[in-house]
Batch of 2 targets.
Target 1
Amino acid sequence: MKDRYQVVVIGGGIVGCSVLYHLTLRGLSDAALIERDELTAGSTWHAAGGFHTINSDTRIAALQKYTIDLYPQVERESGQRIGLHLTGGLELAGTPERARWLHAELAWLRSQGTDAYLVTPEQAAEMVPIIDPSGLTGALFDPEEGNLDPNGATRAYATAARARGADVIEHDRVLSLTRTPAGEWVVETEGGPIAAEHVVNAAGLWARRVGRMVGLDHPLVPMVHHYLVTDDVPQVAAIEGEMAAVTDLEGFTYLQREGDGVLLGVYERHPRHWSVEGAPWGFGRELFPEELDRIMPELSIGFERFPVLQEVGIKRWVNGAFTFTPDGNPLVGPVADVPNYWAACGCMAGFSQCAAIGLALANWIVDGDPGVDAFGMDVARFGPYASEDRYLRDTTAQFYARRFVMAYPNEELPAGRPLATTPCHEAFAAAGATFTVNWGLEVPLYFAPIPDFREHWTLGRSNAEPIVAGEVEAVRTAAGAYEIAQYARYEVIGPGAEAWLDHLLASKLPAPGRIRLAPMLGERGRLMGDLTVSRFEDDRFWLTGSYYLQDWHMRWFRRHAPADGVELTNVTDRWMGFSVSGPASRAILGELLDDDVSNDAFPFLSVRPTRLVDEEAVVGRISLTGELGYELVVPVDAHLALWHRLRDVGAVYGLRPIGDRAVDSLRLEKGYGIWSAEFRQDVTPAMSGLDRFVAFDKGDFIGAEAARRERDEGVTQRLVLLDVDAGDADAAKDDGVWIGDRRAGEVTSGAFGHHVAKSLALAYVDRDVGAAGTELTVFVVGEPRRATILPEPPYDPKGARLRDLEP
Ligand SMILES: Cc1cc2nc3c(=O)[nH]c(=O)nc-3n(C[C@H](O)[C@H](O)[C@H](O)COP(=O)(O)OP(=O)(O)OC[C@H]3O[C@@H](n4cnc5c(N)ncnc54)[C@H](O)[C@@H]3O)c2cc1C
């Protein structure tokens, strides 16, 4: 043990040990792991050790595959046995809808390169002879599942990291974390202080407490979880070789072989939180008494699905705790205001995700970049709202209780809502709005003109689509008003603003009074943002981006800290407004403003400060729908008044409020991308088409070298717009795109283009199959569908309507 390390990892569970190992893989061996007790002493020691690749985020799923593939290497390198069983796993469906969903999952798994296949209930019962197949509608076998020995795997990581030069210090609790004025961490431990450049919070059950040591409140909370292990089961003992793991999706249980018996785990519908602030410091390797009454409803279903369990003895019960976040994925990465502090916590599937976290974090510490699209586990994907007690309890309980429950693509989950609303919320609700949620904020999905309308959850197109079609048509023929409270805004002012932004953004900066689309790149030339820059004066700008990226943007801005003479403020909550678009939008604006709003006086991509509803306001000529359109922004207190005025003035022009669904349909008719779908951290400007906004020749900017290299070398994939020969469902994000039996790409967004009457999808496809007219296959809810690459967007391809030019 030394008194100074480059990195100190706090916590010796499976996550901390994997982080330490990955640091050494990246050559960073001047690192120590500090463990309060002995390795595995948190959640890790009593885990069931199961793993799989399934994740609602496809990029996290790929990282889970990396985790599984790495185990043999760690075992070999450490010489420590990890009890790896690659058994494969069965998922059982108990309803026709769920069987259809398994088809979709099969197509998704195949497009991830996994050799999964469907089996009948009877075949499932042959593979795992203790399954009672009655009532089942289908099953899927995924070969990339299995289990291991949690203790062995954790020690293997630690041993391999030690062999590569890192230190592992046990029985030494971290008591506090402070930063010296020079920016170094002082890690106060029971054994004395240790200096460190970086600290990693991998404290598992205690991670919320360790976060508080640096003033953070991470949105994670421990919950209790049961499994039982049976005595020997003759049918299991008789199986030679591995027995597939089983997840009974309608039954809330999972099962795996444990010796010659089985382990049955339960995700009950009424879960229980425990020690929400983090486990007490004195908590040892302890289990809780079984709470059979609470889990009995789900346990009984398990005993019916696996009837032999009614006959064999139960050898042991495990009721232990592990941590959950609102969406079930971990919290990984740096935070904006605490330099060189790294989160690696909130991990509920440690044996599927430990290497994913280790890889991303080690890359991030060494390169300043996770090296993969890690947004699905990025600590910045949640804002401070997520740590609010009620919200955190409700959302984590919802996630736990729905662990195996199918979420329909159009389903709105209720937990923790409404948390935040805009001043228009009640008026919108009265106008028939159905809401979705964006970073805690309720935002309209669509406005149902029918009282008490209820949308059906479905894998196909829903009964809300005719309503969405009406909103689309209003925009194409009259006008629609879309609430843009869900845009983040940052004000950048001061004499240094221009120089700072010029370096931060890959585009040229607009002239005063103008707007420009501005990709923001990371050092490796991949996208970090698709911002819009509005310039009011020489030294006063607004950056506009996605609402849910506020922490992510601010972290990036701070990392590339504004120089002296630049004042950067997140003004998102101060300004709100509407995007009004459609052929009638100019006439409506003309009634709201005294200004000249003619095409010449107020051209496309211009912006001006003005007054609306007796308040200061900003109006920019820009729209996401492909129509003539304007963004009207006012101080938040005037937002409702603005809506009332718009509604009243717009009524005679046929203006309708529109929601997210209509915007999706409208933007796909124009082939426009958005963040998290087409524009992502693993995508480059040329792949996405954003290169047309990159000013390659403007001198130095972040990512310039990589962007220029890409321009010269070309790309391997590019974004295309597909006309999909769809049935009752449209393509969705991550649906596989194939040419013959070769996987050629993946869908990023899909929707029905109501005006052009086409099912449309944006997709990244390999360059050699990206020519217009190429016929590809997209798997939509598991069904192969013909998809043709369109030569141009089907609606107003030249942009005449947007610019209000002669067509
Ligand atoms: C009953 C049960 C079954 C499970 N089954 C599975 C499964 O089948 N598959 C799966 O993937 N996951 C499973 N899990 C979840 C899994 O256990 C966790 O995802 C995983 O263990 C999390 O690992 P971790 O390293 O993040 O946290 P932990 O294992 O909690 O490790 C954190 C470590 O940090 C140490 N620490 C904390 N504070 C300090 C401090 N101040 N100073 C020094 N050290 C500190 C702790 O002592 C602890 O050892 C299960 C959990 C339970 C409870």
Note: The CA atoms of residues 435 and 443 lie 5 Å apart.
Target 2
Amino acid sequence: MPDSQWEVVIGMEVHVQPRTRTKMFCGCAIGQLGDPPNSNVCEVCMGMPGVLPVINKAAVEACLKTALALNCEIPRHTKFDRKNYMYPDLPKGYQISQYDLPMSVNGHLELGDRQVRIRRVHLEEDTGKLIHAGDKLHKAWESYVDLNRAGVPLMEIVSEPDLRSADEARDYAQALRTLLRTIGASEAEMEKGQLRAEPNISIRRYGSDDLGVKTELKNINSFRALHRAIEFEVNRQVEVVESGGTVGQETRGWSEAEQRTFSQRSKEFAEDYRYFPEPDLPPLELDRPWIEALRRALPELPAARRARLVSQYALPASDATQIAAERELADLFEAAAKASGDSKQTANWIIGEVAPRGKLPTPAHLAELVTLVATGKITRDQGREVLGTSMENGHSPAQIVAERGFAQISDESELRVIVEGVIAGNPRAVEDYRAGKKQAMQALMADVLTRAPQTKPNIASALLLELLK
Ligand SMILES: [Zn+2]
């Protein structure tokens, strides 16, 4: 990362596929990755002449819910516009998007104790996909067009340049994903292309309010790639500026194979989209009672849940942040904490052991495990093993402890407590033993066996010898 004289400024555009059954302006199914090419298409999304688009209400609703959850203002009027560009992945020759009257403006997302301002959330349609293939041997090159994605709804969430590091940019994208899943607006799975991040990045000297020339990174589809691409790009810009050069305004891609960004398109080739109002769609007047009903129907949002985990369960803020970051984790925590009655230990197990496994035990099993460890029936190490086994075979932790014979080892830890008590309660015998009177051992053993009659003598004497050292 750059030295302290450079401040990093990042804004983010995130494209999210709302949860809908059909495409943005036609009745085609959304389909899945791996569907045969051009199997989810019709005249509308193939851009045939004479067809008319129809607005997908579910997509509008998902966009409005997202905007409300991001504390945006919802204007009374909104409309769609044509964004013109000629490229084979878009057979109409334009994309239907929103230009000067987006679905929502001026929101914010809470990120820890900070607020990242949201400039707008609008709706548009996705483009098709080009596959460049060929036969090297015969020098025959071909490009294929798959329009399954053409016309799939997309929400574009645009932030102000409020992010200051690769860490923050990744946290922001993750917080957005959590929010979208919590309100059910999108599954937001990056690996399925349902959430794509496009950070724009610039650097400036600390203390300066000017914005430097920014580069935009396109279509990053994992949190890890997002973090690495931003770190790489920041370092690249610092090197350029510190060696006397200037950063050019351009669009750059991220090469996962080479772990570096590369230039795709410089500003000289920036396109003039010649936006104009989409003549085939009516402007929308957003009904206030409908908006208010959507607002009231929103579930508890991650930021509110985080605050509640702190107040209701007395969790430290850092624990609450980690647990509230995933709705499933937070649900598991609340159910297991109630069942075990030990919220702090439940939180520790979730953060330390459950979250990294990426798979969840049932609340009842987790609560049982927390209790087994907290009461000293098994050790923490054994608890980890029991958790792993329980999640594999579905048996309850108590059952696994019995099957593995861990309870016997726990007898030994109970025995240890008894032996320590015997040593503390017989100072004279201990002193004699340590002075070399080996027969003093017999008195100590007798006391141990009185207090724990079911103990095997060889285990008890081994423990006594160990603790008398
Ligand atoms: Zn269609």
Note: The mean pLDDT is 91.
